Amino acid sequence: MTGRNHHSVGMARIADRTSGFPGYNAEMSHEDGMISEILVRNGYSTFCVGKWHLTPPHEQQMGARRWRWPLGRGFERYYGFLGGETDQYYPDLVFDNHEVEPPRSPDEGYHLTEDMADKALLFINDARTAHPTKPFFLWFAPGACHAPHQAPASFIEPYRGQFDKGWDAWRDEVFARQVKSGLMPSDTVLSERPHWVPEWNSLSADERRLYARMMEVYAGFLTHTDAQVGRIVDHLKTIGEFDNTIFVVMSDNGASAEGGPKGSYNEVFFFNFVPESLEENLKRIDLLGTPDAHNHYPWGWAWAGNTPFKRWKRETHEGGVTDPLIVHWPKGITDRGGIRHQYAHAIDLMPTLLDVLKIEPPMEIAGVKQNPIEGVSFAHAFNDGGAATKHLTQYFEMMGSRAMYHDGWKAVVFHPMPAVAYDGSDPNLPFDKDQWELYNVANDRSESNDLAASRQDKLKEMIALWWKEAESHRVLPLNNQPGKFGDRRHHRERYVYRPGIGSLPRAVAPNLHNRGFRIIAEVDSPGSVNGAICAHGSASAGYAIYVRDNRLHYLHNFLGLQRFVAAANVPVPRGKHQLIVDFTMTGRFKGNVELFYDDLPVGSAEIPITVPFFYGTAGFTVGYLRGHSVIEHEHAPFAFTPGALITVTVEPEGQTWRDPAREDRAARATQ
């Protein structure tokens, strides 16, 4: 949206995993204006619907400033989720600048992508009511097809059996269609299957059955999303704006391997490095895609989804950085259905749209001098398939992996991250020891013929160009290590909260993983109380302190597999009292919990295993629940008795046990 490279605007990494270096701070400057900020000043209504993921987590809470929220960056309306992923049935929603709950429940037919399409149509209709001839800009970014893969059964079932052939055979079929259609040149070579992706026929019958179903769910999720985009298209036809609307349809990265080699029924297992059982996942196969699952497919399907390329999301080979792009504009493009092979980059979208709209990039926005736009327009190729490529040079860097494109050549190197070195390579290898590859991608689209050995002169030239570009665009210093990136919690010995505050994202919630703690609820009971005191997590994982039937409870939900509960043996007495939960660690990832009314012990339980690192994307709430309840058989909001909860105090003990590499992998999996 800025027309500038990601390091140039401080977004070298996802907003959750930042550092203090200028290219990596996730603090997008107003010197790098977004297209929304330009268009709104040129007479356009501007709407953002869906995934944002451009706000640092510590700024996502209700009490934070809104500078880096959509309404702070030129959008007049917003509806969606600020983080990297969310549950499609129980999403973490923001409407303009405030939290909201979904308008319906899953039992009532709710799904986020449908809700997003509803809001997109609402924003368009509201704008046309106020200004019937005013043009609009809509940024529509669905959660699909990011995990969790969730969709109505009616969209999944048509794909039953369609992927039983497996990822090897399906990939061959996709490649044949790509060549036949002209999407890939006829001389393209299909890249080989890497050793870390198993051959489909080497899998057991149970594995094939489960993995095929996971892909069926993914396909249904994609088709369901397409249907919602179709609703927007149909509406534009109804109001007579279809022919004069420019549609730009694209993905943001290659297919995701974050489901691991075996896929996942509950992705929070992956976040916490807890292996999943094939036997247990087969028992839940019919729940895939439903509100009860948080599923992701195995990386064999990601490999096939990136046909004909190598590797996948988070890496700089073509499988990670080459994405489909469709531009549709009936009034401006006469070459309907034409295919273009000119080189273009995501940073070219903004200058291309400004070009066709005849809008000059401003020197200043709201008095702030603008940095140069780094992309170039490709509008000249809309109606000229033989037009020359204008984007001749482009660097890449993602978490230590690098690449350099220049005039049809590409040098590329994979550098693994800790905890995800799946191919056996060494994440601690010095960067200057990496083995670069060299391809003439003008004639070798799939990076199948490595010329590094035979063209060492060209490789040295490309590597030198990469260093030059890296220095110019704030890429340095290189770092694939997690460190303490993104942890901006103001660590305190004591947190005091009042009921009803907005949910707190993980980055600012009390970190109670792997440490003792005391939580004290000040209550004034009228004789009987009920409801949530505080909670963090969802049905996938988390904990909650609550009162049910006028008795204090503590619950720890271990990845949806086991729920450990301590319950008071006597009711909460009338009047002002402290309801206390004391958790004492007895070993790594385990402990004992004791319940008190003031100084009176009223219950205890052993918690033999706790969630190690990550409860998922759901936030911390006080006095109510949100989303898919962490408490079994209790639905949100399960609000505490009105007026009876005064404060909730959280007192962590000691230092939490941390594994930065694992925390880093969990955060990156939600990008």
Task: Describe the protein's architecture and organization.
The chain is built from twelve helices and 24 strands. The mean pLDDT is 95. It folds into four domains: 36-143, no CATH class; 152-331, Alkaline Phosphatase, subunit A (3-Layer(aba) Sandwich), CATH 3.40.720; 392-487, 2-Layer Sandwich (Arylsulfatase, C-terminal domain), CATH 3.30.1120; 495-663, Jelly Rolls (Sandwich). Helix 2 packs parallel to helix 5 (205-238) and helix 4 (166-181) runs parallel beside helix 8. The longest helix is centred in the N-terminal third of the chain and has 34 residues, at 205-238. Helix content is 20%, strand content 21%. The two termini are 17 Å apart. The chain is of the alpha+beta class and 671 residues long.
Sum up the structure in keywords:
671 residues; alpha+beta; Alkaline Phosphatase, subunit A; Arylsulfatase, C-terminal domain; five-stranded mixed sheet; 20% helix; 21% strand; globular
